[in-house]
């Protein structure tokens, strides 16, 4: 019997000792709180990275849209049947108008032309130097903007007959 009691006492002591060596309830709760906080921190970093990527994607899209809009606004296409042109100069002298016409053609505007306007009988004649024939007024505006930007040319849009 003594042996059984000794054995039981030793077993209870060993179990108590083993249980006492593990983490306490408070330590287990603290470890669980730390794991939860680590998960929240990790999720927050993922969320912040996703938000940063979304911001970068939005910025890139705005840039692409802006570039596309600028390219669209600068587009024009010459047409033999267009109803609009951009008048860049007007001269009383046909020779001066032809000289300026030649300069515009040398700049690459092969569709530049001169229009005579006015009454020869009264001497009130102007020779207007124009560029283009484009289909729409918007295209004429784009051409006008290009001429202003690249050649500092003051001009206006003329509707052709």
UniProtKB/TrEMBL annotation:
<keyword id="KW-0175">Coiled coil</keyword>
<dbReference type="InterPro" id="IPR007730">
    <property type="entry name" value="SPOR-like_dom"/>
</dbReference>
<feature type="domain" description="SPOR">
    <location>
        <begin position="78"/>
        <end position="160"/>
    </location>
</feature>
<protein>
    <recommendedName>
        <fullName>SPOR domain-containing protein</fullName>
    </recommendedName>
</protein>
<dbReference type="InterPro" id="IPR036680">
    <property type="entry name" value="SPOR-like_sf"/>
</dbReference>
<feature type="coiled-coil region">
    <location>
        <begin position="26"/>
        <end position="53"/>
    </location>
</feature>
<dbReference type="GO" id="GO:0042834">
    <property type="term" value="F:peptidoglycan binding"/>
</dbReference>
<dbReference type="Pfam" id="PF05036">
    <property type="entry name" value="SPOR"/>
</dbReference>
């Amino acid at each position: 019997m003594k042996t059984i009691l000794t054995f039981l006492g030793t077993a209870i002591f060993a179990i108590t000792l083993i249980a006492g060596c593990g983490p306490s309830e408070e330590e287990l709760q603290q470890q669980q709180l730390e794991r939860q906080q680590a998960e929240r921190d990790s999720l927050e970093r993922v969320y912040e990275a996703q938000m940063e990527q979304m911001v970068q994607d939005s910025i890139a899209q705005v840039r692409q849209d802006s570039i596309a809009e600028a390219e669209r606004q600068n587009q024009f296409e010459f047409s033999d049947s267009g109803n609009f042109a951009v008048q860049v100069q007007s001269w009383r002298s046909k020779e001066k108008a032809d000289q300026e016409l030649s300069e515009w053609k040398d700049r690459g505007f092969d569709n530049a032309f001169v229009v005579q306007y006015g009454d020869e009988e009264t001497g009130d004649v102007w020779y207007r130097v124009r560029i283009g024939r484009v289909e729409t007024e918007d295209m004429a505006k784009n051409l006008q903007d290009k001429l202003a930007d690249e050649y500092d040319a003051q001009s206006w849009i003329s509707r052709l007959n």
